[in-house]
Amino acid sequence: MDNNNRDIILIILMFTLFAFIMVYSIDNPKTLKRIGDYYIGTQNYESAERYYKRASDKGDLEASFNYSCIIADKNPEEAMKFAIIAADGGLAKAMYNAGTFFLKKNPPDLENAEKYLQLALKNDVKKAYTNLGICYQFKKEKEKDQKKKEEYEKKSYEYFKKGSENNDDLSMLYLSYYYSDKNNFKESYNLINKSAEKGNIIALKLKGLYLIEGKGVEKNSEEGYKYLEKSAEKGDKSAMLLAGLYKAKNKKTEEDIKIAKKWLEKAKKIKIDTKEKEENQKLIKELEELVKKYEK
């Protein structure tokens, strides 16, 4: 065999080997997952979703978790399925997500929520404290036996306390409700204040109300309005209405009524669930009446 033929054969063998490597590599779950990561970086979520799904189908747990996160809003049931796959495979952050999915079901699946959140906590996912607190709160509400209700309340309190100690703003907020129910408004305000400092939208609203009412803190209505406004600017509907009512009830200039009307119009554009709707409808009616009164 002459040198030219040998070179041609070598080139063919090299290309064959290269093609084999490429085919194997592109079908490798880790490679598919990395391609998904690349598309996430370029904000091409549709392509990322496709590659994560392929990697997941080939057994990559991280890809299963990532796929579940991408599709969570548009397909929560499918997302939960893939979060469970990753969780059952031992991925700690997926345990937390699986537990959260079960907690958010309608109605909540409290047994599975507790199971996966406890597993997440055992794997040092500290944000599981808050959702475990919520889980036991739901259990307390459903329970008829008084002794068990007290047991669930104690567990709920303990988990919210641990969550608060880990600087979770939602745990702080829930723990503030506990102290408020016990009429310990000073401690309730302290927790609300800490949660508000972290930007929690509900805590900002409650801080405003506590300051306006002088509840657990020295009364400061003007400062309280500022916090209602901060919550309203973040999109809280009831905060918008409360801010509007504050301006209408404490009218000093025509500008106050303009601001009240602005918050009323913004709030009316936001759709929320039935329970909140009932509460807010009263605020809307009251604010509408005040605005009309001053516009006459």
Largest sheet: none
Order of helices and strands: HHHHHHHHHHHHHHHH
Q: Give the low-confidence spans.
A: 17-25
The termini sit apart by: 105 Å
| Percent of residues in β-strands | under 5%
**Helix/strand structural class:** mainly alpha
Strand element count: 0
- Total helical segments: 16
Percent range of helical residues:
over 70%
| Gyration radius from CA atoms, angstroms | 27 Å
Mean pLDDT: 89
Q: Judging from the principal axes of the Cα atoms, what is the shape?
A: globular
Structure described in brief:
It is built from 16 helices and no strands. The protein is mostly helical and 296 residues long. Among the domains are: 167-234; 238-296, no CATH class.
Key phrases:
globular; 296 residues; mainly alpha; 0% strand
Structure description:
- The protein has 296 residues and is mainly alpha-helical.
- Among the domains are: 167-234; 238-296, no CATH class.
- 80% of the residues lie in helices and 0% in strands.
- The chain is built from 16 helices and no strands.
- The protein has helices at residues 3-26, 29-41, 45-57, 61-71, 76-88, 92-104, 110-122, 128-142, 146-165, 169-181, 185-197, 201-213, 221-233, 237-249, 254-268, 274-295.
- α13 (221-233) runs antiparallel to α14, α14 (237-249) packs antiparallel against α15 (254-268) and α15 runs antiparallel to α16 (274-295).
- It is globular.
- The N and C termini lie far apart (105 Å).
- The model is unreliable at 17-25 (pLDDT under 50).
Question: How are the secondary structure elements laid out?
Answer:
Elements: H1 3-26, H2 29-41, H3 45-57, H4 61-71, H5 76-88, H6 92-104, H7 110-122, H8 128-142, H9 146-165, H10 169-181, H11 185-197, H12 201-213, H13 221-233, H14 237-249, H15 254-268, H16 274-295
